Amino acid sequence: MTYVEGFLVAVRTANKDAYREHAERSVSLFKEFGAARLVEGWGDDVPRGKRNDLYGAVAAEEGETVLFSWFEYPDRATRDAANEKIMADPRMKAMGADMPFDGKRMVWGGFESVADVGTPGGAGYIDGVVLPLPAAARDEYRRFCSAVAPVFLEYGATRVMDAVADDVQDGKVTDFNRAILREEGEVAAFGWVEWPDKAARDAGWEKVMADPRMTGEDAPFDGKRMIFGGFVPLLDA
């Protein structure tokens, strides 16, 4: 199944074009080393939370926008080999010397997909989510995601991806574990819903929330620590 390298990034809103250009320059390198798809989602409808949220996840400062991004690989072995090559490639080192964001606050990690329903690619709008999951509930989470994903597709989504932490490390400033206020025995889950456009997303969510199948009562995670938001694709390659 698909292996996901997930990212959360804080970027100065004024640097949007510079960030897009930076991301576009990196596409050929990551593709060369095995990435199947690269997506950069620019924060558009990201709510503030009572306990945690995506802003806090990246220690966002005034005038910054949160990005929800990911790379897709066919498996972890390909991802690991790609990262090894990228770290040693002089072209990437040159690009890293001129990043239009604070790399120290970038949140990243590897996730193994547990449910992938629909058709990837060409998303006009993205809902991104990160949540705390009991490590022992991985199979239960797979069943839960596989059951709710078709409901989203029924109401207009084109793809629903859910993945569970497989290679997530603690960072010095920010990380996925801090983002979800991780408790003992928990891991992070990373996922997204792809929509044709924002209008379809808004209409779809209204129907999803009203559907009796979507009570969330059987969700095997603490929804109060789930962080999420809506994103406009800045890059989808």
What does this protein look like?
The chain is of the alpha+beta class and 237 residues long. The protein has a single domain, classed as 2-Layer Sandwich (Alpha-Beta Plaits), CATH 3.30.70. It is built from 7 helices and 8 strands, in the order βαβαβααββαβαβαβ. Strands 1-3-2-8-5-7-6-4 form an 8-stranded antiparallel β-barrel, surrounded by 4 helices.
Q: How many domains, as an integer?
A: 1
Helix content class: 25-40%
Q: Any idea what the shape is?
A: globular
Q: What's the total helix number?
A: 7
Write down the CATH class.
Alpha Beta
Poorly predicted runs of 5 or more residues: none
Mean pLDDT: 95
CATH architecture: 2-Layer Sandwich
- Kindly identify the CATH topology: Alpha-Beta Plaits
Strand order of the largest sheet: 1-3-2-8-5-7-6-4
SS content category: alpha+beta
- Tell me about the largest β-sheet: 8 strands, antiparallel, barrel
From the alpha carbons, calculate the radius of gyration and give it in angstroms.
Answer: 17 Å
Distance between the termini: 19 Å
Strand content: 25-35%
Order of helices and strands: EHEHEHHEEHEHEHE
Count of extended strands: 8
Question: What's the layout of helices and strands?
Answer:
Blueprint: E1 3-12, H1 16-32, E2 37-45, H2 54-57, E3 64-73, H3 76-88, H4 90-96, E4 107-118, E5 125-134, H5 138-154, E6 159-167, H6 176-179, E7 186-195, H7 198-210, E8 227-236
Antiparallel strand pairs: 1-3, 1-4, 2-3, 2-8, 4-6, 5-7, 5-8, 6-7
